[in-house]
Amino acid sequence: MSDTGPQTGTQPQAAPEEREPEPEHDPAAPAPLGVPRIPTGHAEADAHLERLADADHLATDGHLEVYEDVHRGLRDALTALDARPGPAGPAGRPTVTPG
After folding, report:
1. What is the distance between the alpha carbons of residues 85 and 44, in angstroms, rounded to a whole number?
2. What is the phi/psi pair of residue 49, to 5°?
3. Which of 26, 66, 77, 99 is the least buried, fewest Cβ under 10 Å from its Cβ?
4. Is the pTM of this model over 0.85?
């Protein structure tokens, strides 16, 4: 048998420089926390809670900005629920004072 002939049953292997490098594991890289976010049924609150997913893609020092933004939005939404509408105007005809 000749060394120059094709071998059957084997796949040609890529040269080492042609192989894709294996990704390195970086323990300091951002990683999702895997904390489930259960919908509340209130669209505005749910939108703010979904914003928490942005922290999954940031380094730890970027989490604070996301958390503060979500906290501010939820606080504003709760404050709006507490706001009572102003008094309605008089039901009858307006009174005119002679002048």
Report:
1. 20
2. -65, -35
3. 99
4. no
